[in-house]
Amino acid sequence: MLPLNHSGFILLGIPGLESQHLWLSVPFSSMFLAILIGNGAILFLVTTQPTLHSPMYLLLALLMTADIISTLAFVPKLLCIFWLNDGDIAANVCFTQMFFIHGTSVVRSALLVAMAFDRFVAVCEPLRYNTILSHSLVARLGLMALAKGVILILPMPLLLQRLTFCQRVIPHTYCDHMAVVKMACSHTRPNRIYGLFVILLVVGLDLLLIGFSYTLILQAVVRLNSRDATFKALNTCSTHLFVILVTYVPALFSSITHRIGRNIPPHAHILLANLYLLLPSLLNPIIYGIKMKEIRETVAKCLCRRTS
């Protein structure tokens, strides 16, 4: 048995594809750079351009911040495994990585709920939009999302500290909660129950609130008599809907295949788990850059200033 305070863990990487780690590092390092550049660029534009200081873009800036933190908590260690075959990770570092990866996922989900509320106000109460969604309310929504992530995820590493671990080698690229729980030889039922509780509360409740917001939005859109007004209202929500799809669909697909895909090889599960973390952070700047007219115009103005 391995007392927690005397031993760390070894991240195996992608089991079954160890010989391909160097080649796999190419797409992962490319995604890492694209995430940092894309999210960083939009975050820079939102913070420096007064025209983008509306509630929607402030919430977007918070979402981009969560994406950058999640990526920095996960990818550097993954590249160390791929490039240097260095999978050693101290127990406290492992639990810290777990906290930031899962915590930012909870914060991201809470921000998507806040953005759904933003879209509801924009469509259903357009004349009162700036009155309802003041900067102070956006700040409170951001603090609530942060508090939700900390309160729900902090018990995970705390509960793990009471366990004794019989195994050190984690067949994963990062310290996923359930992957670490499976390393323990002591009683893990509270850890498993709490992990399931967090999943149901975050995914179930957040999707329910988002669905409720869009039900009200659809009811308002149906009552519009003008085709142009209907198209404008739906276009207002389309960007947020794309972001919801790229956030929740990979997560649900990964979760379903992990539970019912018994014939799927382990490396496929690990690759899906990695894509679940990286795809939203990679695609969000692209989606907002393409769909949001204000961001395109701001980028064009900045490029024109530099060329002139």
Brief account:
This protein is mainly α and 308 residues long. It has helices at residues 21-48, 55-84, 91-124, 129-132, 135-153, 155-160, 177-181, 189-222, 227-260, 266-291, 293-307, and strands at residues 9-11, 88-89, 169-170. Helix 1 packs parallel to helix 10, helix 2 (55-84) packs antiparallel against helix 10 and helix 3 (91-124) packs antiparallel against helix 5 (135-153).
Descriptive labels:
11 helices, mainly alpha, globular, 308 residues, 3-stranded mixed sheet
Overall description:
The chain is mainly alpha-helical and 308 residues long. The protein contains eleven helices and three strands. Strands 2-1-3 form a three-stranded mixed β-sheet. Helix 1 packs parallel to helix 10 and helix 2 packs antiparallel against helix 3.
Rg, Å, rounded: 21 Å
Low-confidence stretches: 1-6
Can you count the beta strands? 3
End-to-end span in angstroms?
67 Å
Mass-distribution shape: globular
Output the helix-strand order.
EHHEHHHHEHHHHH
How would you state the average pLDDT, rounded? 85
Strand order of the largest sheet: 2-1-3
What level of helicity do the residues show? over 70%
Q: Give me the number of helical elements.
A: 11
Q: Roughly what fraction of the amino acids lie in strands?
A: under 5%
Largest sheet: 3 strands, mixed
Instruction: Quickly give the structural class.
Output: mainly alpha
